[in-house]
Amino acid sequence: MACTQPITLYSAMSLWARARIGARWLLFKDGLGATNHFETGGFIRSRACVPYPDIQYHFLPLAVTYDGSSLAREHGFQAHVGPMRSKSRGWVRLASADARDQPRILFNYLSDPEDLIEMRACVRLTREIFAQPAFAPYRGREIQPGAGVTSDEQIDAFARAKVESAFHPSCSCRMGRPDDPMAVVDPEARAIGVDGLRVVDSSIMPSITTGNLNAPTIMLAEKLADHILSKPLLRAAEAPYYVAPGWQTSQR
Predict the structure, then answer these.
(1) Which of 72, 80, 136, 217 would bridge 63 by S-S if both were Cys, CB 3.0 to 4.6 A apart?
(2) Handedness of CA 139, 143, 145, 151 (dihedral sign)
(3) Which residues are catalytic?
(4) Dihedral sign for Cα atoms in the order 113, 160, 54, 249
(5) What is the pTM of this model?
(6) Poorest-confidence range of 46-50, 58-62, 120-124, 242-246?
(7) Nearest partner of 71 among 15, 127, 110, judged by Cα
(8) Which residues, 6+ apart, have CB-to-CB distance to 48 below 8 Å?
(9) Of the candidates 3, 6, 5, 79, which has an alpha carbon nearest to the alpha carbon of residue 37?
(10) What is the SS3 assignment for 60?
(11) Alpha carbon distance 17, 169 (integer Å)
(12) Taking Cα atoms as reference points, which of 167, 159, 162, 57 lies closest to residue 113?
């Protein structure tokens, strides 16, 4: 979204401004360099029949691509939004017999039709959020995808053109039973068919978590460290989690 007031990070994007921000952080550890500017975020459900959130939001006071390679030429703000539990499945394969070669990775985004349904919800719900009265003093035109992009087909085309990785891939060598043809490691993270090898990272998750991977990966590593050290296992946790009332029939 374009911003009608000159209050966004656009003013801080010149080389001189960035140099001042960096110098202030190095000297005083404060200022704009002391944050990644993703202070505001949230999790919501895309539609009825989804029991707990499947969409994640980050708000950024700047109009820029996710990887920072392309910046709008004006003040703006945006939401980074996407599905948390994509049903699409990709692969990781060897590029050659040389272990020094980087692997071949195909994320295969949007290959499952369910992903596009969730992406449409991402766009439409974000528009609803930005249309709220609180944004009225700042809300300019919609930069992307543009107010004219309204049909399922148009939103699908926008998603296919603009979707990016959020740098939290997982599940490429999933945990499972030794007789599961899709499993790479057993329930104690031992590589199936290989002696003396365990895999202890987020790649062994059977399915992605609803949220960023840092904390779950730490938890996973701590538990598997107990397995490796043959320590007695802790009692299974029974922590409650929120389920929206009426989730079967309403989105909110």
Answers:
(1) 72
(2) positive
(3) 168
(4) negative
(5) 0.87
(6) 242-246
(7) 15
(8) 247, 248, 249, 250, 251
(9) 79
(10) strand
(11) 33
(12) 159
Residues sharing a CB contact under 8 Å with residue 65, sequence separation 6 or more, in sequence order: 71, 164
Token pair for 241: 């989690």
Encoded tokens for 3: 């911003």
Task: For residue 207, give every residue at least 6 positions away whose Cβ sits within 8 Å of its Cβ, in sequence order, or none.
Answer: 85, 171
Q: With contact defined as beta carbons under 8 Å apart, do 13 and 60 qualify?
A: no
Joined tokens for residue 162: 């603009």
DSSP secondary-structure letter at 63? -
Does 243 score more than 90 pLDDT? no
**Of the candidates 161, 159, 88, the residue with the CA atom closest to the CA atom of residue 122:** 159
pLDDT score of 89 more than 80: yes
**pLDDT category, 237, cuts 50, 70, 90?**
confident
Using the structure block, give the residue that is written with the tokens 């990644």. Answer: 36
- Tens-place pLDDT, residues 27-50: 999 999 999 898 899 999 999 999
